[in-house]
Amino acid sequence: MRLYILHKTYYRYPSPVRESFNELRLHPLTNDWQRCESCFVSVLPTAQMRQYLDLNGNLVHHFEIPNDHSKLMIESRSTMVTAKRVDFESFPYGTSMKSLKEVEGNPECRPYLQSSNFIDISPEIWRMAVDVQGSSKDVFQTAYQVMEHIYLNFEYSVSTTSVGTHANEVLEKKKGVCQDFAHAAIALCRCLGIPARYVSGYFYDPTRDQSMRGSGASHAWIEVLVNGSGWFGLDPTNNRVVDDNYVIIGSGRDYRDVAPVTGTYFGRAPESMKIDVEVKRLDS
User: Fold this and answer.
1) Does one domain contain both 132 and 253?
2) Same domain, 9 and 31
3) How many domains does the chain have?
4) 118 and 207 in contact (C-beta within 8 Å)?
């Protein structure tokens, strides 16, 4: 599938700000399942971009605007080619939960088994996770049940949380958006010993009525490690195993590792911020 993605972020400040230092994670990755044909990231006021890979392998654009400015516009235009990942017959069932003992000591897995900025590993969450697991002894089946539990029991609501909402609050109130659902799912999986990471990206909604939740915005989901089979994406917001409709920007321990825009500046808080995302299919 060939997809075009436009992501615009626009800030307006009540008075001029200065010394703005920013990091952008808006450039899609190229891996076994997706290929970035082109990506152009720009800012206004214009600034020189510096690129580097962060500790999670995500491509970061860094820029600085030292002079006074009252507006900031950030834009990313990407063309992606995605490939089919898995179908029902090839889901990685059959890996026992006992196999998780083998990954506990793996240095690459440790960050995805521990508490992080938005996620706690606690007895209370562990009890929730055990209830969701039920009688399942299979890693993928358990992770799938976590995804399904959140989809069926949590309310998708755009007005009840913020980018700073912790997974503990989401699990308690059972409300939120894709970022919150991803954090909740990660917390439950990690408490059961399943390595789970946060994924930031986009998805193309193939439904005619745009019925998938979170359509028309940047999106978040999780990936879990099934020992011997690799990482598999699960979207608790839409109760879907990630397929070729999804495009990955980056992954990390939680939202803080892959926030699309982060930075600092001297000046007052923005009086307005607007984000527009468009994902459309280029092939038929």
Assistant:
1) yes
2) yes
3) 2
4) no
CATH number at residue 244: 3.10.620.30
**What is d(CA 189, CA 139) in angstroms, rounded to the nearest whole number?**
10
| Joined tokens for residue 113 | 């088994």
Beta strands at 155-156 and 175-176: parallel, antiparallel or unpaired: parallel
- Look up residue 220 and give its two tokens: 């978040």
DSSP-derived secondary structure letter, 6: E
Segment-wise mean pLDDT, segments of 10 residues, the chain, 284 residues = 95 95 96 94 95 95 96 96 77 90 87 94 94 95 97 90 90 94 97 96 81 81 92 95 94 96 94 92 83
As a whole number of angstroms, the distance between CA 70 and CA 72 comes to 7
Distances (CA, A) of 51 to 22, 24, 26, 106, 258: 12, 9, 11, 29, 15
Q: Which residue segment(s) compose the domain that 14 sits in?
A: 2-83+259-281
100 plus 159 within the same structural domain? yes
Based on the fold, state whether residues 57 and 134 are members of the same structural domain.
no
Residues 6+ away with beta carbon under 8 Å from 277:
5, 6, 7, 8, 202, 216, 217, 218
